[in-house]
Amino acid sequence: MTRFRWLFLFLAGFACGPMHGADGVDVAKVPPDLRDDYALFAQRCSKCHSLARPLESGIDDDEYWKRYVERMRRQPASGISPEDEPGILRFLHYYSEQQKKKSGDRL
């Protein structure tokens, strides 16, 4: 993980309580192999809107996420490169699966 991403995660966690990102994601519960993807998602996507916007969107379809991220990448200020897309999509897939599990537990 790059120093910048570790610093971002640390500062986000410090600002919002122990190990929680600015979006309320419990970073400690994100699998270690996806933490870089989360940091990339948080850094790029927060440039243009709150992280709650995608996380609370209710989107749980990987193809829809792919179109969503592609559309966001085309926004001039996003800073999302084609190389960033796979990592962002991995995190969003993980997050969507976790949300599905939570909603299934409530039934």
Number of strands: 0
Biggest sheet features: none
Q: Which regions contain 5 or more consecutive residues with pLDDT less than 50?
A: 12-20
How many angstroms does the end-to-end distance come to? Answer: 38 Å
Q: Tell me, what's the shape?
A: globular
Q: By helix and strand content, what is the structural category?
A: mainly alpha
Q: What integer is the average pLDDT?
A: 83
User: What is the string of SSEs from the N terminus onward?
Assistant: HHHHH
Task: Report the β-strand fraction as a percent range.
Answer: under 5%
Fraction of helical residues: 55-70%
Count of helical regions: 5
Rg, Å, rounded: 13 Å
Could you characterize what this model shows?
The chain has 107 residues and is mainly alpha-helical. Helices cover 59% and strands 0% of the residues. The protein has 5 helices and no strands. Helix 4 packs across helix 5 (85-106). The longest helix is centred in the C-terminal third of the chain and has 22 residues, at 85-106. The model is unreliable at 12-20 (pLDDT under 50).
Offer a quick outline of the entry:
With 107 residues, the protein is an all-alpha fold. It has helices at residues 3-16, 35-45, 52-55, 62-73, 85-106. The longest helix is centred in the C-terminal third of the chain and has 22 residues, at 85-106.
What's the structural blueprint in terms of helices and strands?
Layout: H1 3-16, H2 35-45, H3 52-55, H4 62-73, H5 85-106
Features:
107 residues, 5 helices
